[in-house]
Design a protein that fits this description.
By secondary structure, this protein is an alpha/beta fold. 27% of the residues lie in helices and 24% in strands. The protein has a single domain, classed as TIM Barrel (Alpha-Beta Barrel). The strands form 2 sheets. It has an 8-stranded mixed β-barrel with strand order 3-4-6-7-8-9-10-11. Helix 4 (123-137) runs parallel beside helix 5. It is globular and about 45 Å long.
C-alpha cells in the first residue's frame, strides 16, 4: 500500500518540475537476499534461490599449489590467470604458473575458467589480448568463463593511468566479442566504484559480471546490480595454497 501511494506522488513531482519522462535503469538489479549469504566450512555460500559454488582465482603470486588438497578442501572451481599486459611498456606476458595451475586444477577435477589482466588503452589492444589469451588456452577444456580484468595502475609510468571509462568499456566489449567469436563464454570483472563511476554497464549486458567487493566479515554486498560471481576477499586461506588467495562465490551454473 505504501508503494501504491508513493507512485502517484512521484509522478506528480516529476510533472511539476517539468520532467515528463522517466528512464528506468536498464541494468538488472541485485535480487539476492542478504540473509541467504552464509559461511559454511570457511567459505561464503548462498542458501537462496540461486546456484552456489565455492571458488578461487589464482596467479603466480600464490606459488606452487597442491590442487588435490584444494579440491578436498571443498573448492568447486578455479579461475586461472593466463597472462597480463605490462602497465608501463605494454608487452604481453604469460603468467609463469599458468600451465601448471590449469593442468593441476583440471586434473584434480575442478571446473576451470581463465582471466587476463588487461592494460589495454584501445579496443585494438583488447582484441590483441583476447587473441593472445585464446592461443594459450588451446587444448584446455574450460567450463567457466574467460574474463576481462582491467584494473587501473596509479604509477607515474602507467599507460592506463588516465584511461577514461568509455575507453575501458570499449576495451571490455572488444575483448568479450573476440572471446565469444571463438566459442568461449566471456565475462567482465570490476569493483563497485568502477561500475558506478566509470563503466557503461548497459553496453556490457551481453556478458555476465564478476564483482570484486570486499565487505567486512563477508557481509552481503550492497552492490545494486546483478552479478554472476562475487570475489569477496583477497585474504582467503585454503589448504594446498601456500599464500593468501582470492575467494569467490559463483551464483550461476556455467558448467551447464
Amino acid at each position: 500500500m505504501r508503494l501504491r501511494r508513493l507512485i502517484p506522488a512521484l509522478l506528480l513531482a516529476l510533472i511539476l518540475t517539468g520532467c515528463t519522462t522517466l528512464r528506468l535503469d536498464p541494468v538488472p538489479g541485485n535480487s539476492y537476499a542478504p540473509e541467504d549469504f552464509v559461511v559454511v566450512d570457511g567459505f561464503l555460500t548462498y542458501d537462496g534461490d540461486a546456484p552456489s559454488y565455492v571458488g578461487v582465482d589464482v596467479s603466480s603470486y600464490q606459488g606452487e599449489i597442491d590442487w588435490q588438497k584444494v579440491k578436498a578442501a571443498g573448492v568447486d572451481f578455479a579461475i586461472i590467470r593466463v597472462g597480463f599486459r605490462g602497465y608501463s611498456e605494454g608487452g604481453l606476458y604469460e603468467d609463469s604458473m599458468f600451465r601448471q595451475n590449469i593442468e593441476g586444477a583440471l586434473a584434480a577435477g575442478l571446473e576451470v575458467g581463465a582471466y587476463f589482466f588487461s592494460q589495454a588503452v584501445t579496443p585494438q589492444e583488447a582484441r590483441e589480448e583476447a587473441r593472445y589469451t585464446l592461443e594459450l588456452l588451446k587444448g584446455y577444456e574450460l567450463t567457466y568463463p574467460v574474463v576481462f580484468d582491467w584494473e587501473r595502475q596509479g604509477a607515474e609510468d602507467s599507460r592506463t593511468r588516465d584511461t577514461d571509462g568509455q575507453t575501458q568499456t570499449d576495451c571490455a566489449v572488444a575483448f568479450c566479442q573476440e572471446v565469444e567469436a571463438m566459442g568461449y563464454q566471456p565475462m567482465v570483472y570490476f569493483s563497485p566504484s568502477k561500475a558506478y563511476s566509470e563503466l557503461n554497464l548497459e553496453a556490457l549486458l551481453d556478458w555476465p559480471f564478476w564483482l570484486a567487493h570486499y565487505t567486512q566479515d563477508w557481509q552481503a554486498t550492497t552492490f545494486r546490480y546483478h552479478f554472476a560471481m562475487w570475489q569477496y576477499t583477497s585474504e582467503g586461506t585454503v589448504d594446498g595454497i601456500p599464500a593468501p588467495v582470492d575467494l569467490d562465490l559463483c551464483l550461476t551454473d556455467f558448467s551447464s
